Amino acid sequence: MLARTAKIIDGIAVATAIRTECKERVAALATRGVQPGLAVILVGDNAASAVYVRNKIRACADVGIHSVRYDFATDVAPDTVLSTIEELNADPTIHGILVQLPLPPQFATSQVLRAISANKDVDGFHLYNVGGLVVGDTVFPPCTPYGVVKMLEYEGISVEGKNVVVVGASNIVGKPMALMLMQRDATVCICHAKTRDLAQFTILADILVVAAGKPNLILPQMVKTGAVVIDVGINRLSDGKLVGDVDFEGVRQKASYITPVPGGVGPMTVTMLLVNTIASAERSAGE
C-alpha cells in the first residue's frame, strides 16, 4: 500500500488566479472613470512592517490600484496620525485605509482602528466589521481568514457539516476564522494557549487551521488521517529559515491537503486586501 502524501495547496497559484480577476475588475472600473485607491500608514521603523508595506504597495501596482503611503516617525503624536485618517476618510479617491500594525507604545491601537471609516476599513479590524462577522453581514472580512476561505473554495473543499478546529484565538485570525467558518455551517472549536491536552481536540478535526505562532506545535500524531491542514503560522528560526506552526514533513504524510510555509496562506493575505479595496471602490461607484 502506497503511503499517503497530502496535496500541497499552492497559495501563490491561488493568489495569482484571484489577482487576474482583480485586474479585470479594476479595468471595468476604469471604464467608469474610477481607480481604486489605498492609503497605507506606517509609523516607526519596524523592519518587518516596512517589508509588509512594500509588498502591499507592489501588489497594488500589479493590479492597477492607486496607492499612497504615509510614513511617520516612531515618536509621532497620535493626534497627527488620527487627523491624517480623518482626511483620508473624507477623500473620495481613497477607498481603503490601512494602518500597519504594531504601533509604537504611545498609541491606543483600538482608538486608531476605530478612527478608520468602516466603509474604508479594508483590513477588517474596525469594531463594526468585527461585529458584522457575528451576524454574517460584515463590510470587509479580515484578509487572512478571508484568504483561507478562498483557498478552501479554490480546492473545492466543502466546510459544511465538517469538524473544524482553529488553534489560536487572536482577533486578527483565530476568532474571525471561526466565525466565517460557522457562517458556512461548519462545527467549530477554538483552542488557544491555555487549552489543556490540545491533541484531544486537533485529532477530531476534518479541517485544522493553525495560527498560534509556535513552530512545530502540531505533530503528526495530533492530526486525523485525511484531515485538511491550513498552517497560518509564520516563524523565523535561529538559522533564518521560515516555518509554520505545523511539522510539515511529518503531517503531510497523514493529511489530505496541507499549506506550505512560505507560499501558503501568506500570499493570500495581501491578495484579499486588494479584493477588499476593489470591492470598496465598486461599492462607492454604485455597483
TrEMBL record:
Pathway: One-carbon metabolism; tetrahydrofolate interconversion. Residues 9-123 form the Tetrahydrofolate dehydrogenase/cyclohydrolase catalytic domain. Its EC number is 1.5.1.5, 3.5.4.9. Homodimer. Catalyzes the oxidation of 5,10-methylenetetrahydrofolate to 5,10-methenyltetrahydrofolate and then the hydrolysis of 5,10-methenyltetrahydrofolate to 10-formyltetrahydrofolate. NADP(+) binds at G168, A169, S170, I234. Belongs to the tetrahydrofolate dehydrogenase/cyclohydrolase family. Keywords: Amino-acid biosynthesis, Histidine biosynthesis, Hydrolase, Methionine biosynthesis, Multifunctional enzyme, NADP, One-carbon metabolism, Oxidoreductase, Purine biosynthesis. GO terms for cellular component: cytosol. It comes from the Bacteria. InterPro entries: Aminoacid_DH-like_N_sf, NAD(P)-bd_dom_sf, THF_DH/CycHdrlase, THF_DH/CycHdrlase_cat_dom, THF_DH/CycHdrlase_CS, THF_DH/CycHdrlase_NAD-bd_dom. It catalyses: (6R)-5,10-methenyltetrahydrofolate + H2O = (6R)-10-formyltetrahydrofolate + H(+); (6R)-5,10-methylene-5,6,7,8-tetrahydrofolate + NADP(+) = (6R)-5,10-methenyltetrahydrofolate + NADPH. GO terms for biological process: L-histidine biosynthetic process; methionine biosynthetic process; purine nucleotide biosynthetic process; tetrahydrofolate interconversion. This is Bifunctional protein FolD. GO terms for molecular function: methenyltetrahydrofolate cyclohydrolase activity; methylenetetrahydrofolate dehydrogenase (NADP+) activity. Signal peptide: none annotated. The keyword S-adenosyl-L-methionine does not apply. Pfam families: THF_DHG_CYH, THF_DHG_CYH_C. Transmembrane segments: none annotated. Residues 142-284 form the Tetrahydrofolate dehydrogenase/cyclohydrolase NAD(P)-binding domain. NCBIfam families: PRK10792.1, PRK14186.1, PRK14189.1.
